[in-house]
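Here is one chain, start to finish.
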Amino acid sequence: MTTNTVFPADFLWGGAIAANQTEGAWHEGGRGTSNIDMLPIGDKRMPVKLGQVAQPELDETLYYPSHTGIDFYHRYKDDIALLAEMGLKVFRTSISWSRLYPNGDEETPNPEGIAYYRSLFETCREHGMEVLVTLAHFDMPMGLVTGYGSWRSREMITFFTRYAKTCFEEFGDLVKYWITFNEINIILHSPFSGAGLAFQPGENQKQVTYQAAHHVLVASALTVKMIHEMLPAAQVGCMIAGGSFYPYTSKPADVWQSMLDDHDNTFFIDVQARGYYPSYMKSLLASKGVDAIEMADGDEEILKNTVDFVSFSYYASRTSAHNLDELTANEGNVVKSAKNPYLPTSKWGWVIDPLGLRITMNQLYDRYQKPLFLVENGLGAEDTVAAGGSINDDYRIDYFREHIKAMADGMADGVPLMGYIAWGVIDLVAASTGQMTKRYGMVYVDKNNDGSGSLKRSKKKSFDWYKQVIASNGTVLS
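Its structure:
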C-alpha cells in the first residue's frame, strides 16, 4: 500500500522504552531502590500500584520484574545497534532518578549513573539517532517515598529540580528533546506507580493526590524554565495519557460526564501548556471532596513557564457514563470507563480505535495550539515463535498501519505533529501487569513472566515492516 505522504522530511519516526521496564541491574552501578521496584507480578501488584499498601515492602517469595527488566543496562550497545537497523530517527527513553540520586535527597549525583547514561546517549548519537528523554517515567527513589511521603511534600520540588539540573548539565549536549513527567495524569489513576503515593489510614486520598499534583506541576514548570535558560536550543514538552472520552449515550448526563472526565484528564496540560489553572478547577476539586489546593507565594508566576510542545500517548479511547457502576466496565486500563460496544478489544481489554487517534489529535491541538508529539502508540499481544524462529506479528502491523493512517488524516486536518514513536520497540516488562507475555516490541526478547529465558533478541515481522515505513517516510504501509 503506497500513499501520498503528509509527513515532512524532518518527521521523527521513532521507538520508545522506559528505564524501569528495561534496564534491570536494580542495585548495580550505585542505583538505589525505586518505587517501581516494589511492584511484584501477580495478584499483589495492583494494590501497591494504587497506593493501597501504606508501607510497601519487598517479599522474598515474590518476583519483581523491574529488578532484572530485559537487562538493557548491560546490553544497551547491542540493542541500540539493532534498533538503528530500523532507521529510527529518534529513540525515546527515560532516566532512572535513583540511578543518579540513589536516595533522592543527596547533594551530589552518583558518578556511575552519570557515566552510564552518557555512554547510552553517545551510543545513540553514533548511530544517528536523536534522543528524547523523559525525566520522570514512573520511576523515583524509594528514599523519597519513605522519608518524605513522596509528592505530598513540597520538598520534592527541590529534589526533582536538583536532579533535572544535573541531567541538563551532564547530558544537555547529547539530548535535544525532553519531557518532564510521563503521562502526568496517571497520578490520579495509579498513585503509587505514577507518583510514589502510598496512602495512610484515614487520609483524604483525593486531597493528598491533588495537592501532590500541584507540587508536580510546580516542579515541571521550574524545570521548563531551567531548560530554556540552560539549553536554549533544546525543546521541552509535557505528556498526557491521551484518549478521548466518548459519551456512552446521547443522554445529556452521559455527555456531561464525558466533559467532566475530560477536565479531570487535561487540567494538567492546561497548566503546563497555558500557564495557569483552568476556570473549572474550583468546581472540579469540590466535586472530588477536595479543599482548595495550597499554593505558596510565587507559584502562579512559576506556572507561567509553559512547554514548547504537547506530547501524548495513545492506545485507546474511553467511554464515559454517569452511571458507570451500573454498566459493564472496560477493565483493561487503569483509566476506568464503560465498555464501548462498537469497538474491538485486545486480549488485555484495551479497545482498538484508530479513528480515536485522529479525534484526540484534533481535540488536543484545538485546545492548546502547540505542536503535538505522539510519543507512545502500540499493541500489547502474545507472540508465538514458529519452529524456524520467525515471529509473524501481522496483528501488530495491522494495528500500527491503521493508527499511522489515522495520524496522517489528523495531520491532513491541519494538526502539526512532530513525530510518531512506537511504544515498547523492544519487548519489555508491561507497566500495567508486570508481564513479559504482554509484548509490544518489534524485537522479541526471550524472557518469561517468571524471569526465566535466555534474553536472546530476535526480529519480528513488524521490524522490517516499520523499517520500510521509516525509509519511505510513511508512504509505504503495506
